[in-house]
Amino acid sequence: MNFLRRQLPLFITFITGVVFALQYYIPHPISETLLTEVSKWLQIVGGFALVLGISSLFHIHFVKIRRHEPGWGYSFVLYAGIVGTLIAAFGYSAAAGAWVNGKETINGVTTAFGWVYSYTMVPLQATMFALLAFFIASAAYRSFRARSPEAALLLVAAVIVMIGRVPLGEYLIPALGGLTEWIMGVLNSSVRRAILIGVSLGTVALSLKIIFGIERSYLGGGRE
Amino acid sequence: MANLAERLLNIDRRIIFAVIGLCALMPLLYPVGLPIRVSDEVRQVYDYIDALPEGSVFLLSMDFDPASKPELYPQALALLRHAFKKNLRVVTMTLWVSGTGMAEEAVSRMAKEAGKENGRDYAFLGWSPGVSAVILNMGQDLYKAFPSDYYGKPTKDLAVLDGVRTLRDVNYVVSLTAGTAGIESWYVYGKDKYRFELGGGCTGVIAPGLYPLLRSGQINGLIGGLRGAAEYETLIGKKERAVAGMDAQSATHFAIVVLVVLCNVLYFGSRLGRREDHR
Amino acid sequence: MLRPLLMLTIVGLLSTQAFAQDLTPPADVNVIDGPNDDGGRLIATWAPSPYDRPDVRYRVLLRTADGEKTVAEFPANTKYVKGAKLSWWTRPAPPTFHYFEIKSGKAGNIEPGKPYTVTIAAVMGEQSVAAPPMTATPSPDWFNWNELNNLVLVLLFGGIVFVSIQTARRKEIFLRRIAGLDAVDEAIGRATELGKPILYLTGAGGMSDPSTLAASVILGRVAKRVASYETDLLVPHRDPIVMSVCQEITKQSYLEAGKPDAFKEDSNFFITDDQFSYTAAVDGIMLRRKPAANFFMGSYYAEALLLTETGASTGAIQIAGTDSDHQLPFFVTTCDYTLIGEELYAASAYLSREPVQVGTLRGQDLGKAFILVVLGAGTLLATVGVIIGAEWPAYILDFFKDLK
Fold first, then answer.
1. How many whole angstroms from its chain centre is CA A136?
2. Does ipTM surpass 0.90 in this model?
3. Do the domain assignments include residue A8?
4. Measured between CA atoms, how close is B256 to chain A, in angstroms?
5. What is the pTM of this model?
6. Is C341 helix (H, G, I), strand (E, B) or coil?
């Protein structure tokens, strides 16, 4: 059992890690075919992983409903939502005269699934995203304080960019547009590059450790 | 005085929410229509599409979900309008499953407006699972990556895809992205291997992070956020929801600046007050 | 009046004759299999000519089973080896030579293993002179020599990391203080005193994301301390694979802490992979359960501020760690401590002090130092090269360029 949980995954990780690290340097069509084939396997494995997640979700909410834990009504709504959407997605659309098969529209006719998508999912997601505008304002009011010279400098740059990026700001102070572009294109780019270099080196180092079996925490089960 | 400053600094956040709400709503009800200056990065995308000869293949990947609709949907509409006006062969798709409905709606609407026919002038390939796998497969054989389009028609029979076997045959790709599975994926798995020209559009919050790609030439242009969409609408001469949203964005930005300045004044005021009390 | 006109006509005719005499077949034409590719290209090179001007054009012709077709036509003063994106160690001809890639297109398909005949012609107006046709057979290659510099640098960096790990096994290496990680114990202690749970998020990435891996490693350390205090731990997930891995890690942590009975299977649970649905669910957990400490480790997108602002409103102590630079401003303003970029990757080393982890960190720092030196020296070399008009700095700079 230990072989299946430890040695075999480490062996697979090593072989695939080395093969696909080298694949990048090999332009031969065999190498490209290998990459596209394995990419398809990844899609399949990802599909199976979704089953794991959904079963976990169903289990947790089933326990909540059975035990009548606080908020169990919402768990019931979750079940109803999932089942209802599945029926809408795979059922038959009388209006369109065809099986829905996951399509939002068929020949220009909106299906029930399309209705669920357009009138619940789209507005709900857009609403959640729109909350950010309010949260940014309240976070800015609470935290954007010039507690130190560096914070003051950051604040000044933030104010310049906030004003310079909108038409009203450029209309009132035309020079701000160019200054904003300079801050974004020069200062911001150089800092992003620095963070990117650091993160990329970290990624390469972590990947090398995983490939060579030095980092094994992803297997769970502790050290050996 | 210090007490007042402290109380104002700890003001109920709902008052701030109300201020922002009003600043967003009023300009939408009473638009002002301020002029919009077009930035170089947006102009670069526009110029590239404008210079493409008629019949060139333009691939638009709408890699966003409904949450990013306010920023990226206007970008998609503006780009599609421009592409159809230039009589390009438009191929659209998405790497985000939850964006499929919106992407289909965008391309159908713009095609109908331009009098374009599905299959002959444009194609909507839909969504396929596995971001990197999809792009790699398209780079090898587009017909294998998408054997049929979103409507179930075999892609090999579509006239718009005539002569387009792989991504190498595409003249320009633009990815409108709200996060991972977007511009960076198209560069790493697409342009880096298959050498097509790549442009990008993104939400305002991730735009600063994509400037290094723009500066190094990995993407040839970038449409950032609602502002970028408004600039593109200005360039194509069809001002719509993005331009309309800029007044609201101006008001809310200024409101936040005023709040930040106010909080700093109150902060320093309360510190001064406390120092005087200690004396 | 007539005489100047006659003079002009004679001069014009003579000039044309002179140009026509200059138009000789392109010299030193060479057609080879395109190197470092999948066998779908041919490369044609030929020597520069005295008539390389905008009014003269070069025409590239390809003979296939369907006959001879024009692949391309371009002004004679364009398309040189030095303008092509090639490293100096893979150039097929001197930089002043003309260079053209023949790929599959309208003129025909280039398939590996089949011979193709290519003709280069110089064209001016109606006149055209062609070099003798050359035949070549494209074939796929097993190594992309343009990427040699990339491979050498990766191996060098890998070597530095492994040597650093060996060094760390032999002697102690200094790590600077990371405030956010020192606060982990404080956060866990606070939650235990208040009798409230701890919320730990592993971010939006999958298991292939380095930040998610780092987050799950830190979860192991946090779970071990939480186990010893017997505080409640809530770990909602967006990815089922990450959930399974974190479940194993948490279970093992409880075992190592000597509290296997205190482990709850449901401490790690899957919510949904949809961004805002997950955010709404976690916000609900924060508002109902009111955790005393919130940990945001991993990669985040727009949901970052929605999560942290809600957490801040409940009065929880918040520690964040992310390599998502676009969300850093939001974390910094709303969290008590933030680990920026590779501080997140360093966290595992910092908390455990294991030689392997610490050694890797040192290797990364050495890599960064190397890049800094290259940046400085490269800028200086490039500037010197431009000032003195020399080619030799490019030979060194090319080694650090991304060339394919």
1. 21
2. no
3. yes
4. 6
5. 0.81
6. coil
